[in-house]
């Protein structure tokens, strides 16, 4: 968020308080390392009839895209970047030389409302470093949400980062105000967390995830029985893992993510590629992992959530070092390793089999299942139901098409891998 671009539109009270602008620059920049701020699944709220301020209806918030392609924004900020913890990978650790700043709950609430009314944002993502104690920090986060909901009657999206060490009563209150809550597991392995975040405990983090998950389920059950029962984090909870700060490979990361989904019913597991920071600890890597690695992990996450793949299937798609290939997507990597499963007959294969075909998305599979009720599909028909037929051809049998030896070609990977192109300067 470039605060300078708001200068001629910002409220005069903010312009007069130069220190507030400076704090906003520092704390908005410090929040960019947290990726877990999407808003899919939130309960619909609006201000129709002149009641309340804000709306979450029909769109997502923060670095997400609405169905029509619009980019959705929010105020993504830290309450403070002061912190009593000393996590090696964090730019806000207590031993860091980064500039420090701090907001009060009232200031964050006022900024949110002022920016919302000027159409800069559509919600709030609020996190914080740990100041004084976990309980004190959680009280401040919760108080910000309370002011927005109760004093300003704000009905837009609120995502609060909760603190696993805080008292459950505080997290309970936070969930009553927030659409979504999240607790970062930080690193995929216990060994990595112990080495790089000595102030944090995996058992404590998982305990907090479990309690929040149980409370979300309880609230949903209460809403079924009692129409006016209070909502608790209706958009669920999410988490984030840092990729590349330790030596965990993609097999370990995906296995951890699958366990988090299964054990705690998370809405999303987000991945954030480690980024080298100033005055970094000697135990950290000197350079960041390829951004494509983060992208491949998101693709594997999609396969597990929507395509029926398990963590073991994704692990089977990895290279000898346990990492997913960077030149091809995980679904294609799996298909190339298990060519005996192909080709499948587009007119007879089950939904589960079709979802394993590289190049067929969930929408295309749905269209195929619907269309083949009325006629036998040819390759040309499949081409009209999907975005590209090139990747599909080696893995499908249609009414007029058989790949014969194409599926078993030794150079199939190079044929299907995206071509590298030199970007033009002009």
Topology (elements, then pairings):
Blueprint (H helix, E strand, L loop, with lengths): L11 H5 L1 H13 L33 E2 L5 E2 L2 E4 L26 H13 L5 E5 L6 H18 L5 E5 L6 H10 L2 E3 L7 H7 L5 H24 L11 E7 L6 H15 L3 E6 L17 H16 L4 H6 L13 H8 L6 E2 L5 H4 L7 H10 L7 H7 L10 E2 L14 H5 L10
Parallel strand pairs: 3-4, 4-5, 5-6, 6-7, 7-8, 9-10
Antiparallel strand pairs: 1-2
Helix pairs in contact: 3-4, 4-5, 8-9
How would you characterize this protein structure?
By secondary structure, this protein is α/β, with parallel strands linked by helices. The protein has 3 domains: 1-182, no CATH class; 187-275 and 284-305, no CATH class; 338-416, no CATH class. It is 38% helix and 9% strand. It contains 15 helices and 10 strands. The chain has a 6-stranded parallel beta sheet with strand order 3-4-5-6-7-8. A two-stranded antiparallel sheet has the order 1-2. Helix 8 links the parallel strand 7 and strand 8. Helix 3 (105-117) runs parallel beside helix 4, helix 4 (134-151) runs parallel beside helix 5 and helix 8 (250-264) packs parallel to helix 9 (291-306). The radius of gyration is 24 Å and the shape is globular. The chain starts with 11 loop residues before the first helix and ends in a 10-residue tail after the last helix.
């Amino acid at each position: 968020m470039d605060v300078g671009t708001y200068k001629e539109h910002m409220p005069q009270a903010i312009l007069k308080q130069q220190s507030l602008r400076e704090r906003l620059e520092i704390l908005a920049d410090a929040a960019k390392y947290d990726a877990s701020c999407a808003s899919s699944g939130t309960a619909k709220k609006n201000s129709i009839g002149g009641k309340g301020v804000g709306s979450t209806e029909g769109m997502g918030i923060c670095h997400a895209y609405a169905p029509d392609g619009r980019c959705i924004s929010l105020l993504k900020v830290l309450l403070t970047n002061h912190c009593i913890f000393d996590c090696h990978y964090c730019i806000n650790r207590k031993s860091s030389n980064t500039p420090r700043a701090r907001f009060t709950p009232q200031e964050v609430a006022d900024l949110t409302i002022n920016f919302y009314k000027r159409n800069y944002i559509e919600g709030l993502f609020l996190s914080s470093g740990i100041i004084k104690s976990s309980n004190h920090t959680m009280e401040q986060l919760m108080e910000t949400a309370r002011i927005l909901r109760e004093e300003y009657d704000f009905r837009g999206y609120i995502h609060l980062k909760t603190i696993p060490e805080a008292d459950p009563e505080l997290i309970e209150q936070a969930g009553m105000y927030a659409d979504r809550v999240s607790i970062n597991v930080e690193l995929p392995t216990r060994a990595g967390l112990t080495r790089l975040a000595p102030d944090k405990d995996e058992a404590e983090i998982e305990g907090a995830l479990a309690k929040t998950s149980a409370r979300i389920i309880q609230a949903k059950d209460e809403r079924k029985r009692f129409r006016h029962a209070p909502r608790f984090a209706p958009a669920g909870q999410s988490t984030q893992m840092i990729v590349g700060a330790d030596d965990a490979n993609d097999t370990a990361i995906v296995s951890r993510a699958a366990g988090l989904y299964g054990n705690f019913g998370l809405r999303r597991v987000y991945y954030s590629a480690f980024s080298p920071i100033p005055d970094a600890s000697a135990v950290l890597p000197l350079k960041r992992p390829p951004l494509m690695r983060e992208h491949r992990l998101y693709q594997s996450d999609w396969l597990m959530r929507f395509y029926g793949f398990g963590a073991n299937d994704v692990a089977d798609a990895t290279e000898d070092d346990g990492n997913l290939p960077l030149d091809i997507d995980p679904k294609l990597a799996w298909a190339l390793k298990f060519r005996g499963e192909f080709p499948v007959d587009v007119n007879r294969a089950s939904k589960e089999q079709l979802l394993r075909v590289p190049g067929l998305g969930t929408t295309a599979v749905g269209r195929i299942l619907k269309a083949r009720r009325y006629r036998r599909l040819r390759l040309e028909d499949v081409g009209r139901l999907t975005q590209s037929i090139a990747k599909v051809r080696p893995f499908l049998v249609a009414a007029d098409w058989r790949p014969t030896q194409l599926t078993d070609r030794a150079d199939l990977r190079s044929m299907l891998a995206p071509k590298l192109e030199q970007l033009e300067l002009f």
